[in-house]
Amino acid sequence: MSDFFSTLLDELPQVRAGLWVTLQATVLGSLLALALSFALGLMAGSRLLLVRGLSRTVVEFFRGTSLYIQLFWLYYAMPPLTGYELTPLLCGVLAFGLNYGAYGSEVVRGAVNSVPRGQYEAALALNLAPARRLRKVILPQAWVQMIPSFTNLLIQLLKCTPLLWLISAADLMTVVQQVRDRTGETLTAYLTLLAAYFVLAYALTLLMNLLERNAKRRLGLETGPGSLFRTRGAAAAGGVR
Amino acid sequence: MTTGVGPLVRFDRVVKRYGDHVVLDELDFTVRRGEHVTLIGPSGSGKTTILRLLMTLEKVSDGVIWVDGSPLSHVRAANGSLKPAGEKQLRESRKKIGMVFQQFNLFPNMKVLQNITEAPVSVLGMDRDEAESRARELLDLVGLAGKTDAHPSQLSGGQQQRVAIARALAMRPEILLLDEVTSALDPELVAGVLDLLSDIARSTDITMLCVTHEMNFARDVSEKVLMFDAGRVVESGTPEKIFSDPEHERTREFLAAVL
Amino acid sequence: MNGFDWNAAGDALPLLLEGFRVTLLATVLGTLVAAVLGLAVAVAGRAPSRLVTLPVRAVTEFVRSTPLLVQLVGAAAVFSSVEPLTVGVVVLGVHYAAYTSEVYRAGIDGVPRGQWEAARALSLPARRTWQAVILPQAVRNVLPALGNYAVSMFKETPFLAVITVQEMVFEARRYGAEHFAYTEAFTLAGLVFLVASYPTSLLMRKLEKRLGH
């Protein structure tokens, strides 16, 4: 076995810890992004101009300023400005969550708008209360539409987690680079790292496909087993990553 | 409550505009309790808009709709004038009214039974068991007793429309609005749905307002036919009168085109 | 707590704008690589033999599913003798080509079947079919999406700072470290991004509407 892999094995506890940091950042960041997506996306459909405007401003702000800068701002610029200091991991979770929450809100907005108007009208005709219309009729249908786009965003978020290395969060990238520094096997190290992220991305895609199948089943739509192993189509039409 | 004496529904100089386009032009008409009224007329004449205004899916531009003596989408201000109602009053108004849509609009995320029980449970506060047993009765009535656990997507158009009718009836509306309920159905499924509606018209005291292109249905079920053109009632009367001896030129032209 | 130092911000701005020129250069060159390479990949994906299409698909999938930052840092380490900006532009271009190829693919799929058949009926050679018939129709539909990817790439150019390309964020970090003025430097850099990318996004949306997406 090459030097690199034997060292990697020796350092297994470190590698596991790094992987854990990466996974934590991905999962917690996504959960924050998911919550923000719904909050901002539903606000965008409000009747009140002020609420819509607030949502629009937040979304454009976090989409318009680069994620990289948001992360660095939280890590370097916020402590001297506010006196609060966050752990690197928390900086990552916040930056990823805010940035992808902004993108996700567009997904929520689009999916809610894509539910046929007749569904809203039928819920109104049955006199369902506004919150109930949203929760029981509109969102369950919009949810199915959201999942493929959310899968794309989730993978994008995972792909941003190596940024944690730059704010010394000891993630997967940090650990593998340490092994590389010790062995000097540059190409092997980075190919291994890429392969690891590829496997993570594929596993997450598989999970999301399961979720989508489950959601479709609730609408009475059956999908073949092949759909589970389908990879993500790039968001080709919109060109938004 | 002012029950009984006056008409159940009264349109009082109702105007509906979209921008510059006037859909309903100072419309006046009344519907008595228990009456079955069919609205006919060329497309774009504003028939469907009347049902949508009654269901409060849209707001009147001017005028007042009275239901059972109360304004449907207005409330009395302190000085006695009428102002547009808020969501809370609108929800009160909607209690009396149910609607069946051209495109069925069943909720695809709920099975058939839940489509019917959702509103009785969450709006009327009905006990779930009671709502379900009543839903089963209604499904039996519309001839779909075996379909409680089906997804809407597994039903034919005609079956979906029957479920939609059961769903509307489950709310025990005083007024049932039927908006071209057979227009989206395959021809062979139309008769079954129309028969069902005739049964309901005969066996209940529900007031019906019906927009349809099925002139036979208008003739068999309704006591009154309103002929619309360009946002106004051109002519009204019993089906016999309208179909065999129409007074107005527009009515004759329209009937000649559809019959 | 030191608050926001406007003097430091004023000091940093010229340096940042100097770096911003490199940022723009990298974006333009990277977009060009992505636009050309993406097209090549999309056409190769249509090759008659699976010996071509399968590897092409596997590589695009791999590039798309792995982090740009790892690709950048890895490439810079492996090709340590090459100038960082060149490595950066190529890696950005390759990474985004994995996305733009999908855009082209959709564009090509959008050309009606009848167009292929008509070209065959006229016995046009393959090269001519692509050049004169298919691509002109496919490319028009993909412009807004390509534009959106260019904006995305623009916002990811700060990654180049990691491999010592002296673009805007590199300058911001340097200024921040030297004067202990990270707050001012990063706030300004973020604002420059916002000012540049927001109008561009609006423009793209307008373009999309106009082309009827």
Explain this structure.
The complex is a heterotrimer of chains A (241), B (259) and C (213). With 241 residues, chain A is an all-alpha fold. Chain A has ten helices and no strands. Chain A has one domain (3-229): MetI-like (MetI-like fold), CATH 1.10.3720. Chain A has helices spanning 3-10, 12-43, 49-64, 67-82, 88-114, 117-125, 130-160, 172-183, 186-218, 226-229. In chain A, helix 2 (12-43) runs antiparallel to helix 8. In chain B, the strands form three sheets. In chain B, strands 8-9-10-3-11-12 form a six-stranded mixed beta sheet, sandwiched between helices. Chain B has a four-stranded antiparallel beta sheet with strand order 2-1-4-5, covered by helices on one side. Chain B has a two-stranded antiparallel ribbon with strand order 6-7. In chain B, strand 11 (224-229) and strand 12 form a beta hairpin. The radius of gyration of chain B is 19 Å and the shape is globular. With 213 residues, chain C is an all-alpha fold.
Provide a concise account of the structure shown.
The complex is a heterotrimer of chains A (241), B (259) and C (213). Chain A is an all-alpha fold.
Chain pair sharing the greatest interface: A-C, 50 and 57 residues
| Tertiary shape of chain C | elongated
Strand percentage of chain C, roughly?
A: under 5%
The whole-number mean of residue pLDDT values of chain B reads 91
CATH architectural label of chain C: Orthogonal Bundle
Overall mean pLDDT score of chain C?
A: 89
Indicate the CATH topology of chain B. Rossmann fold
Classification by helices and strands of chain C: mainly alpha
The general outline of chain B is globular
Q: What oligomerization state is this entry in?
A: heterotrimer
Number of strands of chain C: 0
Q: Would you identify the CATH H-level superfamily of chain C?
A: MetI-like
Strand line-up across the major sheet of chain B = 8-9-10-3-11-12
- How widely separated are the two ends of chain C? 49 Å
**CATH homologous superfamily label of chain B:** P-loop containing nucleotide triphosphate hydrolases
Query: What does the largest sheet of chain B look like?
Result: 6 strands, mixed
Low-confidence runs of at least 5 consecutive residues of chain B:
none
Instruction: Give the low-pLDDT segments of chain C.
Output: none
InterPro entries (chain A): AA_ABC_transptr_permease_3TM, ArtM/GltK/GlnP/TcyL/YhdX-like, Ectoine_EhuC, MetI-like, MetI-like_sf
Keywords (chain A): Amino-acid transport, Cell membrane, Membrane, Transmembrane, Transmembrane helix, Transport
Membrane topology (chain A): Multi-pass membrane protein
GO molecular function (chain A): transmembrane transporter activity
